[in-house]
């Protein structure tokens, strides 16, 4: 069966790329570095400025999509807003009303994002629609399971997120869930902070079709039609670190290893490998902060 080619005019492609970066900019401005969330979050806001304005600069490299051979990369210089209100908060991967907050439990709205990828750059997706920027948001329950010492904690996070694609407009692409176990600590007598985590990433049928489905009209001899099902996307292990160089400048980085062997759609012709890695590095520079303190 012949491949149906969907080309995008240069002017339209440029507008789509601008729109994707603009949405990423807005998300980062509200939540600080998305790809470090939820690790390295401020676990106690007492005494910190109520709000901060700054600039974020960084670069990230990830698989083009889970189980892809090709990769996507992006460098960004963006504004950052942090706000630590008693109810409304915008800080390191979460934004919105903090509906429940006790010493050990918090319920809020969390964010995540992933990079766009052109199908022209992905051999297995030639002739298929491009993958747009994905922005995820939804409720998240966070609870502290243990505090090994005064500087560290073990936390469980249970997010359920709606996935929105940004490409020539906005469209829903299903739901994702990522139960995550996190250990984070501050090094004694040091400005370093470290976090490690393990998580499982699940997608509903619509999200998994977005990554792994092959409609009949886009099937080829090398890429047979495939209808994806809901289930596990990946098992993820992450490690991140940050360090304050000055009261206004902080550097950070992360690495992630993902296993796709248990993916619910290993039979898809778009499922091409069993492991993948991501990495990112960045700098956050605070330009202004409030005299008022968060509580």
Q: What is this entry, summarized?
A:
With 295 residues, the protein is mainly beta. The chain has helices spanning 10-31, 205-212, and strands at residues 51-63, 71-84, 88-91, 94-97, 100-101, 105-114, 133-149, 152-166, 170-177, 180-186, 192-203, 231-244, 249-259, 275-289.
Evaluate the radius of gyration.
20 Å
Helix content: 10-25%
Count of the separate structural domains: 1
- What is the helix/strand order? HEEEEEEEEEEEHEEE
CATH architecture: Beta Barrel
Average pLDDT works out at 84
Number of helical runs? 2
Global morphology: elongated
Point out poorly predicted stretches. Answer: 1-23, 25-43
Gap between N and C termini: 63 Å
CATH class: Mainly Beta
Number of strands: 14
Structural class: mainly beta
The major beta sheet can be summarized as: 14 strands, antiparallel
CATH fold-level topology? Outer membrane phospholipase (ompla), Chain C
Q: Which percent band covers the strand fraction?
A: over 45%
Which helices and strands, and how do they pair?
Blueprint: H1 10-31, E1 51-63, E2 71-84, E3 88-91, E4 94-97, E5 100-101, E6 105-114, E7 133-149, E8 152-166, E9 170-177, E10 180-186, E11 192-203, H2 205-212, E12 231-244, E13 249-259, E14 275-289
Provide structural commentary.
It is a single chain. Residues 1-23 and 25-43 have low confidence and may be disordered. This protein has a single domain (10-289), classed as Outer membrane phospholipase (ompla), Chain C. The chain has 295 residues and is mostly beta strands. The chain has 2 helices and 14 strands. β1 and β2 (71-84) form a beta hairpin. The chain is 10% helix and 49% strand. The longest helix is centred in the first third of the chain and has 22 residues, at 10-31. The relative contact order is 0.19. Strands 1, 2, 3, 4, 5, 6, 7, 8, 9, 10, 11, 12, 13 and 14 form a 14-stranded antiparallel β-sheet that branches. It is elongated, with a radius of gyration of 20 Å. It has helices spanning 10-31, 205-212, and strands spanning 51-63, 71-84, 88-91, 94-97, 100-101, 105-114, 133-149, 152-166, 170-177, 180-186, 192-203, 231-244, 249-259, 275-289.
């Amino acid at each position: 069966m012949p491949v149906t080619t969907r080309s995008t005019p240069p002017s339209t492609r440029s507008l789509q790329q601008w729109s994707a970066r603009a949405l990423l900019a807005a998300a980062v401005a509200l939540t600080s570095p998305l790809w470090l969330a939820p690790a390295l979050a401020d676990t106690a806001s007492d005494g910190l400025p109520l709000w901060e304005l700054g600039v974020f600069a960084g670069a990230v490299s990830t698989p083009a999509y889970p189980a892809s051979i090709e990769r996507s990369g992006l460098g960004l210089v963006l504004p950052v807003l942090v706000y630590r209100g008693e109810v409304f908060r915008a800080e390191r991967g979460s934004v919105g009303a903090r509906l429940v907050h006790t010493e050990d439990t918090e319920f809020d709205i969390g964010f995540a994002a992933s990079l766009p990828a052109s199908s022209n750059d992905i051999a297995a997706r030639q002739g298929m629609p491009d993958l747009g920027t994905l922005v995820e948001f939804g409720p998240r329950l966070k609870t502290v399971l243990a505090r090994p010492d005064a500087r560290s904690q073990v936390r469980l996070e249970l997010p359920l997120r709606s996935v929105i694609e940004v490409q020539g407009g906005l469209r829903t692409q299903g739901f994702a869930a990522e139960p995550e176990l996190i250990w984070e600590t501050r090094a004694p007598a040091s400005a370093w902070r470290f976090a490690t985590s393990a998580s499982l990433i699940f997608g509903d049928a619509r999200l998994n079709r977005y990554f792994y489905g092959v409609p009949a009209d886009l099937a080829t001899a090398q890429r047979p039609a495939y209808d994806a099902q809901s289930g596990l996307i990946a098992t993820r292990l992450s490690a991140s670190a940050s360090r304050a160089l000055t009261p206004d400048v902080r550097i950070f980085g992360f690495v992630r290893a993902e296993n796709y062997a248990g993916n619910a759609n290993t039979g898809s012709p778009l499922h091409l490998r069993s492991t993948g890695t991501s990495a990112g590095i960045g700098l956050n520079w605070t330009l202004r902060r409030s005299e008022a303190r968060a509580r």
